[in-house]
Amino acid sequence: MYGIVNQGIQGLIIENYGVAIWEKIKAKAGYGDETFLASQLYDDSVTFSLATTAAEVLDISLEHVLKAFGKYWVLNIGKEKYGTLMKSGGDNIIQFLKNLPNFHSRVMLIYPNAQPPEFKVDVINENTIHLHYYSSRIGLTDFMFGLIDGLSEFFDAPCGVNHLNHSETEITYDLFEIVVH
Amino acid sequence: MEQMIFNAQLLEELFPFFIIIEQDLSITFAGKSLRKIIHEAISFEDTFAFIRPKLGIEYKFDSILKFKDQVFILQIRNLSYPINLKGQFVFDSPNNRLLFCGSPWITSDDDFIKTNLYISDFALHDSVLDLLQVTSSLRMEYDDKVTLNSEIEKQKKFYENLFDNIPVDIGVFDNELRYKFLNKNSVKDEKTRKWLINKTLKDYYEFRNLDLQLADERQALLQKAITEKNTVRYQDVYNEFNDNEKVILRELFPYEDYEGRNYLMAYGVDITELKKGRDELIIKNKELEKLNGELDSLAYSITHDLRSPVLALMGLLDIIYESGEFGSENKEYLTLMRKSILRLDDTIREILNYYRNARTEIDYTEINLLHFVNQSFESVQYYVNYKIKLETSIQADCPFYSDENRIITLINNLIANAVKYSRENDGNAFIKFSAIIDHENCLITIQDNGEGIPYDHQKNVFKIFHRASSTTSGSGLGLFICSEIINKLNGKILLESIPLQGTKFTITIPNGTKTIEIS
Lengths: 181, 519
Prior knowledge:
heterodimer; B: Beta-Lactamase; Beta-Lactamase; 5-stranded antiparallel beta sheet; 16 helices; elongated
């Protein structure tokens, strides 16, 4: 994954637990000397290692870390680094999710080695959608929950989320039902 | 709007890379520029691969339709260099077919060169080419960044190397007295060195199991240096009183960087050898002082205990001489005895002179050269039984200041030598004394027309105990003392001599005017 993701984890930990804990996690994961650069490509294992080590050091579940990270991703990284793009994606959560794939595809155009996930939105009714999530990676479903949570807060749209389907073969597939209140 | 009629030509001009696919995914139309690449290909699935979307989509008309709100990236299969088309699918509902409008995604010059595409293949409104310019300049900026980074790395390595090779311990603390930098000499183990960054001195002492009270003392010194903004010095002694004793001189030096941040540099220099050397020097000095004390006693002894009997002897001899009561044989013996005593007295006096020159401070007073020359000549002219003519000439811009005793000794020795080594020369024997005095120097020449000095002796005359001739009186110390005196006064002496013709001494002595002015 591109370094911006690892920077995201760094930001999440530092904001909630401080620099000292982050340094500890980073060192324990084996990257004590590393400075993460946003546009540099790192192996996926780096990100996973950071996440699992964080869970270990903070004595919380990996699920918890990933959910927190998903939310942080939207509300901090997304807002700070992609603020305009996010705003132009739509003024409500449904519109945004419909346009989300285009954003990710464009990321691929600039960073050809990126492997962003894929999404598809089926509109059920005015405030209910089915969000299909496809990823070439395994184990990031919890991150998605965090993401949806973050988007709900960003668009000030409290939602109910039902996890309708989940499969992990060569790819991960999740089906979320999102009901906007 | 619904009735707008398009013909294929218009579409092709706007989208030279468009394709139309039917329900069975066969390609029925393709833009001119695309045809150049895919030629007469008919099957969509055989010609194109889904890049985006990819995981959720299938090669079916209905599937594509479901994703028609999304950006598509299609890769043209079977090319030696891949081309990706970025665009969108549009549903032509009256005709139940899908239209793909898009164009190749170009990000580098390579994409152009290797794909055989030309700018003219693209529609004018297509911003892909504009984007290419932007990415080119971004790439340039990125390359600059890489270059700069490598320069910074080089510099960093240079300074690290410098610091690691200085044979001095260097450590830097930040304002909170945490280690910010340690060079290789201060902590040899690299891992420990790295670990110490942002730790305190106490952390280090704890880690090494060193005396924690000492740690507190040292910490207090560090704090003192930072608070008082002043250098603090102390010495660290290891293995005290052992053969392996090591002494490190440490300095704590607070400083500010260019952004006003406070740092404390601590460096330590091994002064063990220096200290040893100094301690040895102190011992030697004490020995020397003792020796000098003994010499002083000896000189005193010479003055009183040696000279008194000598003077008594000389006095008694004079009495016998003047009484006249001795035979002719005895007269010869008396003369010889007199000569011997005089020689003894000379030697003693010269030893005293040497000692005085070496041990006493220079005392500047105004020198009356003429007076001393005449006085000197008067007392030695009787060494020979013929007449020697003394010529003197003094040329002075100002008074001559120097050490009186030394000048007297100098003149005495040189005049005495000139007399002792003179020749009768049919009554033309002379000694010429001249002095030229200015603010800087006094230039003295003493010239005679005596025996001269044999050439092979000339370079040795100023050496201690050298005597040119065994027949004349003298201890051999005379010229040696002269050269010692001249050295002490920072002067110079030059000897010119032609055997059987004469000898000339040229002496330059600095005029002590400045010293007088200062005092």
